[in-house]
Amino acid sequence: MAINLLIAFWTVSILFVITPGVDWAYAISAGMKGRVVVPAVTGLILGHFIATLIVAAGVGVIVSSMPLAMTTLTLIGASYLMWIGIQLSKNPPKPDGNSALEQHSWWRWLTKGTCVSGLNPKVFLLFLALLPQFTDPTSDWSISTQIVTLGLIHIISCTIVYLIVGYSAQFILSTRPKAALMVGRVSGVLMIFIALGLLAEQATLFI
Fold first, then answer.
1. Is the pLDDT of residue 169 over 90?
2. pLDDT tens digit string along 176-198?
3. Is pLDDT at 102 greater than 50 in this prediction?
4. How far, CA to CA in Å, does 202 sit from each of 77, 147, 159, 167?
């Protein structure tokens, strides 16, 4: 692929990555909890990678052309984000200096992170709309290979930014329990509003 095309895609991609959203809220909540930033971010990245593979396989185009499938995906994703947001708002993570975290806690944060990004229809639609635009039909690489390559570039940026966000939250809020609780609740409210926005978009389709 042409280097100028990759740079152009990265420029657009990084703007989305540095914009606070659901992934940021989840990374911050992981940072406040302690040594679960890595599994939490790994889960988020895994969700993005799954979305990349779906688009690269051409399944994304098929799903996006089926209104019922898109509506179902959005309802499932919005409901899950709503549930996570409510849990964060009611029980925000408290700074945890305990280094003896059990293994299942790591898996729980990884699994939840995968669902947060993987079930977020905004991620899927973003990849569906963005990735194909930066492919080159004249390239020696297949379109699917180019899409996976672009997805990996986006994922690398996400990994770096989300780790910075998570560890910054851990460093800044670890000694400020009241501030940590407030940030946790704000993160939960953010997820709830995003979920409500997704549901409102679907409601307008039936009006």
1. no
2. 767 666 766 777 787 788 778 76
3. no
4. 12, 28, 30, 35
Among residues 149, 124, 122, the alpha carbon closest in space to that of 59 is found at: 124
Question: CA angle, corner 58, sides to 55 and 59, nearest 5?
Answer: 80
Cα–Cα distances in angstroms (integers) from residue 112 to residues 123, 132, 201, in the given order: 16, 28, 24
Please report where in the chains the tokens 């940072």 appear, as a residue. 31
- 21, 194 contact by CB (below 8 A): yes
- Closest by CA to 197, choosing from 107, 146, 138, 125, is 125
pTM: 0.75
| Inter-CA distances, 44 with 14, 135, 199, Å | 16, 24, 22
